[in-house]
Amino acid sequence: MPSKRALETTPFAAMEVLEKAGKLDDVVHLEVGEPDFEPPAIAREVASESAAHGEVSYTNARGKESLREAISDYYERQYGVEVPLNRIFVTPGSSPALLAVMLDVVDPGSEVVLTDPHYAPYPNFVRQAEGETTTVELDPETGFEPQIADFEAAVGPETAGLLINSPANPTGAVLSPESVEALVDLAERTGTRLISDEIYHGLDFDAEAHSVLEYTDDAFVLDGVSKRYGMTGWRLGWIIAPPDEEQAINRLVQNFLICAPNHVQDAAEAAIREGAGLDSIRDTYRERRDLLLEAARDWGLDMGYTPAGAYYLLLDVSSLPGDAFEVADRILEATGVAMTPGPDFGTQAENTLRASFATSTADIEEAIERLDAYFESH
Fold it and tell me: Using CA of residue 103, residue 109, residue 115, residue 119, what is the dihedral sign?
């Protein structure tokens, strides 16, 4: 009999759609955030050389020192902040990093404040630590930018953490520097731990994404190489821990994660130090977003906002018959275009589909052509 914890873990809809789509022919995949850009050539070369030279053993649970130096240099170069190596923990992907942070921050029965919409697995991470979630509703009319007064109202005696994500999945919203600073202040005033998921940093094309580390050392930061370097399957992330949480995170990582793959750490270091610039990638994502946004307006599914980062757009399907799951299934079967049902991302996304523009421009144009024909005939 599965445990209560396992039974309460909800399916990840994007992966469920991917599984369904995998059984069909000629599918255009807009359901997952899978960058179509190749990883930096230097990362591929270093990974191959590293494995060939036998760099396949365990490493320090914190990660190789040279990689942590590269990560530290990145924060100084990108944000002008100094991050000591002892606060950096390399992990096999950013998802295990978030699980380790939740196990550190959350006691049974305590709360974590999330935005709504939010990245679909967030509540499941909180549940694994036997915590509860409370949400702050976001509005497309304000570009899904959180209102600080709503966060203030959501924080209570049982609140252990505030979990933010900017640029955000699924909305593409980017927090303003004023909002980041205000959230840092709120966390400090209320004794709440701020946790910032910055995995889409570098993919901000209409607004500059600011790290919480520019404003405080007393926050957790989660990041990795999957999104901006196109290294999703390499599974390499990291935690920046507050100074007073370093030993606790080290114990959790040692026990539950052991270490990230040795040769992948070398590849990640190469990508961070020498990977190609992101300017052309950002420009391409902006062009793809604009293509999809214009099409959404033509279809009458536009929510009235423009994603400023990441590579997702929410479509309003409330005018179509059936719930979002039925709409997604119907469109997939009729057109071969796969999108993720919005309810996975919270109540504020119940009547939406999430479309990813991480796929190629040609695929997006093909998806638009198929959906144009579908909506014209329906």
Answer: positive
Supply angle C-alpha 344, 292, 335, rounded to 5. Answer: 70
Strand residue runs (E) in 178-284: 193-197, 219-224, 237-240
Tokens of 287: 């062009």
Q: 235 in helix, strand or coil? A: coil
Query: What is the tens place of the pLDDT at every residue in 270-299?
Result: 999 987 678 888 999 999 999 999 999 999
Q: What is the maximum alpha-carbon separation in the chain?
A: 61
Strand ranges (E), the chain = 28-29, 88-91, 111-116, 132-137, 159-165, 193-197, 219-224, 237-240, 312-316, 337-338, 340-341, 352-356
Token reading at 153: 């109202």
Task: Calculate the dihedral angle through the C-alpha atoms of 258, 263, 264, 270, rounding to the nearest 10 degrees.
Answer: 130
Neighbours of 117 (CB within 10 A): 30
The tokens of 239 are what? 């935690």
> Pairing between strand 159-165 and 132-137?
unpaired
Q: CA distances (Å), 344 to each of 119, 121, 184, 333, in order?
A: 8, 8, 28, 20
Distance of CA 6 to the CA centre of its chain: 23
Which of 5, 70, 100, 29 lies closest to 274 in space, CA to CA? Answer: 70
Do 218 and 26 meet the contact criterion of CB atoms below 8 Å apart?
no
CB contact at 8 A, 184 and 216: yes
Strand 352-356 and strand 340-341: pairing? antiparallel
Strand order across the beta sheet in which 219-224 lies: 88-91, 237-240, 219-224, 193-197, 159-165, 111-116, 132-137
223-239 mean pLDDT: 94
Render pLDDT for 171-226 as a digit per residue (tens, 0 to 9).
Answer: 999 999 999 999 999 999 999 999 999 999 999 988 899 999 999 999 999 999 99
Question: Partners of 309 in the beta sheet?
Answer: 204
Helix, strand, coil shares, percent, the chain, to 5: 45, 15, 40
- Decide: 170 and 354 in contact? Cβ < 8 Å: yes
